[in-house]
């Protein structure tokens, strides 16, 4: 229910540059901390799984680091909205948006994967990433305890190198995994 509400809200906000800007600005400091924890640079090619209608994480990573970003979502309408947002922000040369689930084969190379809170099934996504990436480098947002039942969790046994806390309500930290 919460995920559907947020997805619907993002689709509505994505139609307005003003509302998109407000929505994205709420996350800028969070993304800055995630960039530091994972040491994202302009040499990286980032796969953002679960970009939603307003791919604010992709926008901030591209602008703040110069990295190229491939943003994906399993919702076709969200992908169309995200493509429109990227075009309006004049970042199409740096950010590509595709309809994809993060599990099935995809013919691209990545140096880092970013799992949004709503990305799922996380265990299958991590398994697919392990098969494609060497080394495996992943940033994942984790649900706050009170919202843990609404979001898929990471599988056990991952090599979490660092984490960073956030003041957000739905997710309270991000972890950096490297294997």
Outline the structure in words.
The protein has helices at 2-13, 17-25, 28-38, 56-65, 76-88, 122-132; strands spanning 45-49, 68-73, 95-99, 112-115, 137-143, 160-165, 171-178. Helices cover 37% and strands 23% of the residues. The mean pLDDT is 90. It is of the alpha/beta class and 179 residues long. Strand 1, helix 4 and strand 2 (68-73) form a beta-alpha-beta unit. It has 6 helices and 7 strands. The protein has one domain (2-178): Rossmann fold (3-Layer(aba) Sandwich), CATH 3.40.50.150.
Helix/sheet category? alpha/beta
CATH architecture: 3-Layer(aba) Sandwich
- Total number of β-strand segments? 7
* CATH top level label: Alpha Beta
Mean pLDDT: 90
Uncertain segments are none
Give the domain tally: 1
Report the end-to-end length measured between terminal Cα atoms. Answer: 34 Å
Backbone CA Rg: 15 Å
Count of separate DSSP helical elements: 6
Strand content: 15-25%
Q: Any idea what the shape is?
A: globular
